[in-house]
């Protein structure tokens, strides 16, 4: 069952990510547009999305991850939290986070993002405008809110 001289370290089960590589998407939280599906119009979703089919129009996916798979052919402007392109895109990408262009992908359009990774073999024709990422706002601790509320009650009493 166990072999001598081997560590029981499970770190190999979760290899470290390379730059531009995204976390695996859980199948229960993702919608997939299959390779035979053709969609024309405005597409929006409140879950991660993988496109393997053909899309024409606009894609509004503001707070989630969007992947254009190797078979994906998209002619649309994209608004998403993060974007991974493995197939073809003809349109602009607007992202709050990371845009990844995989080897073999082709993008014709402009990219507006805070971070971008282009693998060797990715084809890109357009301009890139990088913005400074907006710092995250941290909510105050619950006891701080309770103290402020208590102080406000004392002032009104």
Q: Helix count?
A: 1
Radius of gyration: 21 Å
Q: How would you characterize the largest beta sheet? A: 13 strands, parallel
Uncertain parts: 5-20, 23-27
What does this structure look like?
It is built from 1 helix and 13 strands, in the order E-E-E-E-E-E-E-E-E-E-E-E-E-H. By secondary structure, the chain is mostly beta strands. It has one domain (19-130). Strands 1, 2, 3, 4, 5, 6, 7, 8, 9, 10, 11, 12 and 13 form a 13-stranded parallel beta sheet that branches. The model is unreliable at 5-20 and 23-27 (pLDDT under 50).
Provide a concise account of the structure shown:
The chain is built from 1 helix and 13 strands; from the N terminus they run βββββββββββββα. By secondary structure, it is mainly β. Mean pLDDT is 79; it is low at 5-20 and 23-27.
Helix and strand arrangement:
Layout: E1 30-33, E2 38-44, E3 48-51, E4 54-68, E5 73-85, E6 88-90, E7 93-95, E8 98-101, E9 106-108, E10 111-113, E11 115-118, E12 123-125, E13 128-130, H1 142-156
From the structure above, extract its key features.
single chain; 13-stranded parallel β-sheet
């Amino acid at each position: 069952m166990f072999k001598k001289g081997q560590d029981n370290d499970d770190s190999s089960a979760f290899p470290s990510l390379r730059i531009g590589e995204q976390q695996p998407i859980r199948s229960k939280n993702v919608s997939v547009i299959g390779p035979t599906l053709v969609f024309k119009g405005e597409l929006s979703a409140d879950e991660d999305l993988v496109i393997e089919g053909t899309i024409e129009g606009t894609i509004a996916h503001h707070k989630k991850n969007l992947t254009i798979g190797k078979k994906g052919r998209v002619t649309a402007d994209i608004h998403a939290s993060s974007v991974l392109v493995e197939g073809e895109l003809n349109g602009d990408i607007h992202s709050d986070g990371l845009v990844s262009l995989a080897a073999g992908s082709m993008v014709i359009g402009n990219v507006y993002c805070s971070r971008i990774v282009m693998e060797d073999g990715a084809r890109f024709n357009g301009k890139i405008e990088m913005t400074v990422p907006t710092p995250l706002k941290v909510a105050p601790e619950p006891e701080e809110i309770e103290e402020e509320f208590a102080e406000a009650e004392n002032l009104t009493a």
